[in-house]
Amino acid sequence: MPTAHLNGQSITDWDSFHTESKKAFGFPDFYGRNMDAWIDCLSYLRDDDGMASFRLAENEVLRIEVTDAESVRQRAPDILAELALCVDVINERYADYGEQPALELVLR
């Protein structure tokens, strides 16, 4: 299973979250650094749209692993809550297209 690793030690605020996301997912230089852009970049992982460095096969799932998630929860609990919500939104998009969910969020 392909895995994107978000380093929880480096996530202290929204700016650092988007820096980590850009690095972990291979978002393009024009990535908007907000959650709408984050959702857009991860909504077509089974297509070749070039918005992320991952390309999933049919029914394949990308695991998003946040290491040291407890420290993120202590410093910025809103980030983890929004991240979980956005993963759900993206998976709902895939379901709307008749596809299996594409993301799995793992907090370590």
Please provide a written account of the structure:
- With 108 residues, the protein is α/β, with parallel strands linked by helices.
- It has a single domain (3-107), classed as Barstar-like (Barnase, Chain D, 2-Layer Sandwich), CATH 3.30.370.
- It has helices at residues 14-25, 35-42, 69-75, 77-96, and strands at residues 3-7, 62-67, 103-107.
- A 3-stranded parallel beta sheet has the order 1-2-3, with helices on one face.
- The longest helix is centred in the C-terminal third of the chain and has 20 residues, at 77-96.
- It is globular.
- The protein starts with a strand and ends with a strand.
- The mean pLDDT is 97.
Summarize, please.
The chain has 108 residues and is an alpha/beta fold.
What is the element layout, followed by pairings?
Blueprint: E1 3-7, H1 14-25, H2 35-42, E2 62-67, H3 69-75, H4 77-96, E3 103-107
Parallel strand pairs: 1-2, 2-3
Helix pairs in contact: 2-4, 3-4
